[in-house]
Structure formats: structure tokens, C-alpha cells
Design goal:
heterodimer; A: about 240 residues; five-stranded antiparallel beta sheet; 11 strands; about 35% helix; B: about 300 residues; mainly alpha; ABC transporter involved in vitamin B12 uptake, BtuC; two-stranded antiparallel ribbon
Chain lengths: ~240, ~300
Amino acid sequence: MTTRDEPLLSIEGLTVSYGAIEAVRDIDLTVRRGEIVTLLGANGAGKSSTLNALVGLAPRKARRMIFDGTDLAGLVPETIVRRGMTLVPEGRRVFASLTVEENLMLGGAVHGARGNPAAVKADMLELFPILAERLHQKAGSLSGGEQQMLSIARALMSSPDLLLLDEPSLGLAPQVVDRIFDLIGDLRARGLTILLVEQNVTQSLEIADRGYVLANGRIELQGSAAELRSSPAIQDAYLGA
Amino acid sequence: MDMFLQQLLNALSLGGTYALLALGLAVVFSIIGLINFAHGELMTVTGYAVCFALIWGLPFPLAVIAGLVVATAAAFLMERIAFRPVRGASATTLLLTSFAVSAILRVLFQNLISARPIPVSIPSSLSGVITIGPLHLGMIQLGSIIVTLAILLGLNLFLHRTMAGRAMRAAAEDFAVLRLMGLRANSVVASAFAISGLLAGVAGILWVAQRGSVDPLMGALPILKAFIAAIIGGLGSLSGAVAGGFLLGFIEVTLQAYLPESLLPYRDAFALFLVISVLLFRPQGLLARKTLVKL
């Protein structure tokens, strides 16, 4: 087990390639316990590839890839998730033909060791009252915002230590986006560590402790959220100041 | 009217067998995108297992159980040996692999067992005919309707009431995300194959019971019909496969009953013509739904 001082996630020299195309080139990344770290960048910069690689869904190579004392090299997604790191994928990807309840059940199906599934489910329904109302509806019948809530709740059913969020605000109405960001704050307050990929740079840097900016698969810029907010490069490229 | 009812029962019996086979194809296709043309050989394996169990002196019910166990195990092994190494490969690779498995098994049956049909002694109690009013219903036919309905009901309960069943439905939608739930891809695929094997086993027993013999190419025709049924229903849709199976059975039986005698040799051509007509208007199949095949 790691001590409190050691980072929860420590990545050195991560490269993600699909055939001849390198989506991510030799990046280093650290996430400490209790932090919200944001990964920013334009479309195609390699943000999603990075998250997918961390959970083993994208082909990856790295010099060092340690999560909570476990070497992630060669581990398949199902094992990584069982160790306490999970991903809320881009585009929500709820199981549309299954009910809300079934989505949640699958989320907690194999995580009895990490938390009592019934208790975690009750907790999720308290955190997301809308899901309690829609428990027996097909997930596909929910609105985009509700599906995003379900996707997050489903991931939380595994009682993770580190939650990777891929563009949770994508395609949602502004007031729903605000609720998602409030929720991310609430989750951190519960002790969850979060790695957030976002296009919404302003709100991400408001909520995050630190951030990385990816461009063409490389880390172009990194620092505390405050530093990034005032950086001229970010101002020009993303904040339109 | 009596004629119609009689034909309806015939259609239910034949269509039910097609439905079970098409369902077996669809369960696997919906999860890994493979159209398993070796599915027919699972029927053949079942037939031989029942046949040898009877020759060996086992009572018929035990021989049936042996057939089902062998079918399930054969499907499981097929996945492990032939399909797991090519999982995630292109649809063409998967398809060719299944043709290869099918061809190898047929040759093995021909060389190791016999190229000729082997008779299977079905108990005489099963060859009787029940007369209900004007309807004449063979015991085997009646049995096949009841068994088909029971299997469909059982599978439906399994898919909706058990975690393994929910995982299979979820895998059919989005396999990658299911893995993010911590559910093992290999177990989900293996259970899909086991279920398809069981379905092929049931269909194989019904087929053998009606025909009374097993031969190496026994699976060829039914698998073609099941493939057509699955296409009519919309590949990857389980309810579509069932609907397609019954529809194809209904078309074939109706043509058999009502075509003038001079046209009867062309029954299959007419049946396929109707199938093509269905697909002209609904090219995606009757009950198609989008399937994501990602690993």
C-alpha cells in the first residue's frame, strides 16, 4: 500500500498508438490523493486516448505506470477497475436497453469486496434523486443530463479511489453543465480523487487543483489551476481573452 | 379452418427449431460480431452424442441430457480453441474461421465416425400421434413446440433476472463499457457460447428426433435456414431471431401446404423470394437494432 505522500497515480513516458498513429507521445502524469486534476486540450490532442490507456482500453506503452502501488502494465480493464480506478467514458455510453437499476447493478456487480453493493446503491440514489425516480425506466429514455448522471453513478458503484471523467459536460445544456461541475465538487468533498478531461476550460480550471494541457499528443503546459488560468497561452487559445 | 390450424401447428414446430438455431447465432453475433457457421456442427455433435449414448444403453432421457452437455461443452471449446485467438479481428477473419471450424468438424465426422447416416432409435412412445378433434399432432411435434416455448421463456428469464444475463445484454450493446464495470470479457463471451451451444443442442435433438438419423452434413441445411431467419429478424437482435425463425417456418409450411403440386419442387425458391421481399422493404431486418462491436 502507498503512503499518503505518494501519488495515487504516477505515469511516466506513456505512449498510446493505434497502428502507425501515435495519439499520445511520451507523457508524464501525476495525480495525488484528494486532488482534481484536469487534462485540457483541443479535439484530437490525445485526452481521451490517455484516459482509455490508463484503464487498459487503448493500446499503451509506458516506462512506469503505477496506481495505488499496483503496476498497471499488462493489466486488462476489468482488473484495473477492480483495483479502484474507473472511467466514465466520453458520450455517457449507458446501456440504453437496460433499466437505470440494471445499469447500476452491473456497475456494482463484482465490487462486493470494495463496498456493500446495496449500501452503495442507496447512497447513489440519494446523491442522484432523479435516478431513484427513473429506476425502472430504460436508460435510453433518459435525457442527456440524466444519462450523464447515470453514467457517473454506475462508475461510482465500484467504489473507486480514482475516477476518470471524459468530457462529462459534452452536449449538455448550460444549467446541466453547472450541475455536473457542482457534482464533481461534491465527489471530491467525499474524498474521491478525480482526473477530468474537459473542453470546458473555464469551469474545469475553476474546480481543479492542477492541470495539464495536451497538444498533438504531448504535454505542452502544466501547473496549478491558478497558474494555468493566468497563462497567456491558455488565455489566447481557450479563454478568448 | 382445421387445415389452417393444422398448418399453424406445423409452422410452430418447424419455426421453433429455426428460432432456437437463429437465437444461438444471434447470442454470439450480438456480443462478438461473429456469424458462427460452425453452429450447425454443434447440432451434429449433439446428434452423435445422443446416438452413441443410446447405443451404449443409456435410457432416452439420459441420452438427451448427454447430448445437451456435449453440445454446450463443444461450443465452449470451439470458443476457447478457435475463436478466442481471433477475437476482435475483422468480420471476414471471424467468418472464415467459422467456415474452417465447420469444414474440419465435418471431415472429422466423416472419417472418424461414418460418412453415412447412422439411425437413432427414438423411443416408440415419441412417435405416436395425438388427435385433438380434427387435428393430428405428432408427439415429437408437440414436444418440440413445448420445448421451444420453455427454452424461450427460460432464456428470457435468464437474460432479465440474473446478473450474467444482464451482463450479456449489456455486452451486446457496449462490450468495452461492460469491461469497465469489472466484468470479465472472457467469461461473458464463454457464457454466450455455452448458451448458443445449449440452444444448438436442443435444436439438434428436435431435428434428430423428427428424422431418426444422424449424418456428418446434418447441420448444413438447418444452419442455412437459421442464418436466413436471423437475417430476416435483424442480425444481433434476439427477439428478431425468434421472430425470423417462426416467420421462416410459417412461410415454408404454408408454401408446402398451398402450392400446387407442380410448383412444390420450387418451394425453397418461393420461400427465399419472400425473404428477399421482406428485406427489400426492411433491409436491416424486422427487429434490427444497432450493435456496437468493440472490445
